[in-house]
Design a protein that fits this description.
heterodimer, A: alpha+beta, 2 domains, six-stranded mixed beta barrel, two-stranded antiparallel sheet, 14 helices, B: alpha/beta, six-stranded mixed sheet, 10 strands, binds adenosine-5'-triphosphate, binds magnesium ion
Chain lengths: 406, 241
């Protein structure tokens, strides 16, 4: 019975191929859009999540310059108003477990005729702990390297690859950073992209004192533009933020109400809001795509209504030879559902194809999840049933005699 | 509750049908009373607009009377649900139309088998039974054709085969030869005769006397009422007694 009706539905669709195709097209576009948008949205969410987890937890960054001057810019734009002594004082505060002063800049790095411009980071040994950044190979520098400003370096995987290629082991090799020779003592584990899209593996980390003396020469010794602070737990974040502010005000002799020469930012909170923004974005994308599914559904309803009217006589004949209301209902419902499912399958193929294309063209992170496909399929079927029901009911409720007279 | 002898396939009493239009109430059938015995062959005649089709549609459970009783096989039809009526149309009654009413997109064998889809018979049996009936009406070799590939007379044979597929007790035909030429009409009537000889009750509407002459009993409608009811032959059911 069901297979017979399925055959009927298939034949009815085949009887008017162009119309069936056009009706399906609404579904194809809707499902394709949903699958593609969800792949892009989930990809974005996923890469943000990865960056956040690579960042380390319960972090503050203390920046030189007044709070109004905007995070990323202040690092390069202003004079360095913080220094290593500030950092040391911070590490004595309650709830603070680690502090790392940072001094950064770009520099040309040379190894055996290979040139590479990379981000140089001068910092203390605690930086790797704060970022929970481990080494693939070798060992990290220690406090003694800080004190005596030894020329040792940790190298990120991207930089290592660019300078050494795949065959040479960088450990123990000497590279030149701005004409000074440095020995590579460790290779950093890969961290991937940061929240702002930088490649965190394209970097070289050296002791802060060495960086200031040999690489960024024109600085007051010990002064830095950024200090990274890690709090003990999520709960003490508020307290630590207050303490950092009052400590620095006191140390920098800033009177109440006067403009600060530093700012404290809660990196973890910033990361959370970034995650929420991407989530909202991806929801929005999905919602916009769903509208086209809805439009596709309305298209199906429209065509089914036309079809019921056109086939009134056929309905009358079927009723005259014994079709019950539910037989007619099922027949038209099945047609609507078959149209939407076939459209949905084509849409999934196009959506997945589009997602793969986008991935290859932009190298953006794209996630095609089975969940998204299942969801699209379920929604499309539901749309078929929902929008097919009214026309099918209308057909089933026809009076046999009136239908036959049509 | 009236009990009716099951000898009568059809028993109609005080049947009325009214249509309500903007112009007022139309009484199309007025106090129709008739009993039709099992195995009888009845021709209904009468001028255009006299209510013949309306009456046939009520007999065929396609339409409902405004008033009155209709017993089919001793069972009252008046207060049946739509599904029960559909079931009667499917199993007890075979309806043949003037315009054949075949599904244009389906093959002849599928057309004949269609009622079986609604009685839940499986595909192999449907096809087997439909082919057998196509053979009976002489169209076995056209089974895969579409209705528009065969003549009107052949289409009406297919429609009759479809009406027979569920072994109905009653065949109702509203001007089955109305669209056919004289020769073909008589061929179709021979087919009805054969069915009647097999014991099936046949009721048909016609405008032509020579067509009506094939039947055993002739009824005349005028203005919604039966004005004449004559037995012209002994019916096959009576012959046997
Ligand atoms: N749905 C309707 N609404 C109003 N009047 C109707 C309706 N159906 C039929 N009638 C009227 O009922 C009357 C009888 O119609 P019916 O079709 O039964 O006649 P008939 O005897 O079969 O005629 P013919 O020989 O031309 O087929 C006609 O006057 C017709 O106009
Ligand atoms: Mg008529």
């Amino acid at each position: 019975m069901f297979s017979a009706m399925f055959g009927e539905a298939w034949r009815a669709m085949g009887a008017n191929r162009l119309r069936t195709f056009l009706t399906m097209l609404g579904m194809v576009i809707g499902v394709g859009a949903v699958v593609l948008m969800m792949a892009i949205g989930q990809g974005a969410e996923d890469s943000v999540k990865k960056s956040i987890s690579s960042m380390g937890s319960n972090l503050f960054i203390v920046l030189s310059g007044p709070p109004s001057s905007g995070g990323a810019r202040s690092a390069s734009g202003n004079a360095a108003t913080l220094n290593v002594k500030d950092a040391n004082a911070m590490s004595d505060l309650d709830g603070v477990i680690a502090v790392a002063p940072l001094s950064m800049g770009n520099a040309q790095v040379i190894y055996a005729g290979n040139n590479w411009n990379t981000a140089i980071l001068g910092t203390s040994p605690s930086f790797l702990d704060i970022r929970s950044w481990s080494l693939l190979d070798g060992y990290a520098f220690g406090l003694s390297d800080m004190r005596s400003a030894t020329r040792v370096a940790l190298i990120g995987t991207t930089t290592a690859h660019s300078l050494f290629g795949d065959d040479v082991d960088p450990i123990g090799k000497t590279i030149r950073i701005k004409a000074s020779p440095f020995t590579i003592i460790g290779i950093l584990e890969s961290k991937g992209q940061s929240l702002d899209g930088r490649d965190q593996d394209d970097t070289i980390i050296v002791p802060l004192s060495t960086a200031q003396r040999k690489i960024f020469g024109n600085q007051i010794p010990g002064s830095v533009r950024q200090i990274m602070v890690q709090a003990e737990s999520d709960k003490v974040m508020g307290m630590v933020e207050d303490n950092l502010n009052s400590l620095l005000k006191q140390r920098h002799n800033i009177r109440e109400g006067a403009e600060q020469d530093f700012s404290v930012r809660n990196l973890t909170a910033l990361a959370k809001s970034a995650a929420e923004t991407t989530k909202t974005m991806s929801l929005l994308l999905g919602a916009i795509a769903s509208v086209s599914l809805l439009v596709g559904g309305i298209g199906i309803m429209n065509i089914m209504l036309v079809s019921v009217t056109e086939r009134t006589r056929e309905i009358g004949i079927r009723m005259a030879i014994g079709a019950r209301e539910r037989n007619i209902l099922l027949q038209f419902l099945l047609e609507a559902v078959v149209i939407s499912i076939v459209g949905c399958l084509i849409g999934i193929a196009i959506g997945v194809g589009g997602a793969i294309l986008v991935k290859n063209l932009t190298e953006a992170s794209i996630i095609i999840s089975l969940n998204a496909i299942t969801l699209a399929f379920t929604v499309a079927t539901a749309v078929g049933v929902f929008f097919g029901f009214y026309p099918a009911k209308k057909a089933a409720k026809l009076n046999p005699i009136e239908a036959l007279r049509f | 509750m009236t009990t009716v002898l099951s000898k009568n396939v059809i028993s109609v009493s005080h049947l009325y049908k009214e249509y309500y239009t903007d112009a007022g109430t139309f009484s199309v059938l007025k106090d129709v009373n008739i009993d039709i015995e099992a195995g009888d062959f009845v021709a209904i005649m009468g001028p255009s607009g006299s209510g013949k089709s309306t009456f046939m549609n009520i007999l065929g459970c396609l339409d409902k009377p405004s008033k009155g009783d209709y017993f089919l096989d001793g069972q009252t039809v008046a207060n049946l649900e739509n599904d029960a009526l559909a079931n009667l149309r499917n199993k007890t009654i075979g309806f043949v139309f003037q315009g054949f009413n075949l599904l244009a997109r389906s093959s002849l064998v599928d057309n004949v088998a269609l009622p079986l889809v609604y009685s839940g018979v499986d595909k192999d049996e449907r096809t087997a039974r439909a082919l057998k009936l196509l053979e009976k009406v002489g169209l076995a070799k056209h089974s895969a054709s579409r209705p528009n590939q065969i003549s009107g007379g052949q289409q009406q044979r297919v429609a009759i085969a479809r009406a027979l597929i569920n072994n109905p007790r009653l065949i109702l035909a509203d001007e089955p030869t109305g669209n056919l030429d004289t020769t073909t009409s008589h061929e179709i009537m021979m087919l009805f005769n054969e069915l009647n000889q097999d014991g099936i009750t046949v009721v048909l509407v016609t405008h032509e006397q020579d067509i009506a002459d094939h039947a055993s009993r002739q009824i005349k409608f005028v203005d919604g009422s039966i004005v004449e009811d004559v037995r012209t032959k002994i019916s096959h059911s009576q012959e046997r007694h």
